Amino acid sequence: MARDVSAKCRRCRRTGEKLFLKGDRCGTAKCGMVRRAYAPGVHGKKVSRNQSGYGVQLAAKQKIKRIYGVLEKQFRKHFEEAASKPGITGDMLLARLEMRLDSIVYRIGLASSRAQARQIVNHGLIKVNGRKVTIPSFEVKVGDIVSANGSKLGKNYFKNIDQAIKNKKDFPSWIRFDASKMEAEIVSVPMRDEIGINVDAQIIVEYYSR
Predict the structure, then answer these.
(1) Residues 6+ apart with CB under 8 A from 86
(2) 93 vs 81: CA distance, rounded Å
(3) Which pTM does this prediction carry?
(4) Which of 129, 144, 151, 172 is the most buried (most CB within 10 A)?
(5) How far apart are alpha carbons 73 and 70 in whole angstroms?
(6) pLDDT per position as a tens digit, 66-96
(7) Residues 111-162: pLDDT tens digits?
(8) What is the CA radius of gyration of the chain?
(9) Quick one: angle between helices 53-68 and 8-15, nearest 10?
(10) Beta bridge mates, 175
């Protein structure tokens, strides 16, 4: 499985804002955006010029790719599948990315970052509708049940996050979570204002429509 192995803090600094790629660490003084709030590289501290229209479109695309941890080939595939369906392509693209299994695992609090979510999915700690799934990009559908693998609940990982999940208050409205069973039901497709990504996804449609 191809993945981006570049330094996570550099990705945030290149974007110019926190993308919370390291989970809890991003809320501490160790965060790269706190220590060095400028672009990486020897010219990072220089004031950049105004971006062209193409530059704005490219920056938006790169930001979403970094947030969800997908590379260009996979991101383009997500875009083409969203564009093939009726509706607002940009919103459907974000919804499709949110419905990836690794993103669902992150949203319900079983992982502190999407990178960690991909890891625990790869290790077989997650089930969908009672069946173990080890593919982070697996597309979850409305009505599906995402849960912790019952045979793995005794692992220290789940013991350590159990209380944090029970205290979690900000579950997305499109997910119904049962903390006692450590399982979530997808009740609807996320709407644009429920995703919380600060970027105009329609700019990406313009990028690929050049």
Answers:
(1) none
(2) 8
(3) 0.81
(4) 172
(5) 8
(6) 889 898 999 999 999 999 988 899 999 999 9
(7) 888 888 998 899 888 999 999 999 999 999 999 999 988 766 666 666 666 6
(8) 18
(9) 150
(10) 186
CB within 8 Å of 110: residues ≥ 6 apart = 117, 120, 126, 148, 161, 165, 182
Residue indicated by tokens 């369906």: 85
Structure tokens at 36: 């060095």
Length of the chain: 210
pLDDT digits (tens, 9 = 90+) for 45-54: 665 667 788 8
Contact indicator for 78, 97 with CB cutoff of 8 Å: yes
Give the Cα separation of 73 and 84 in Å (integer): 17
Question: In the numeric block, which tokens belong to residue 94?
Answer: 């974000």
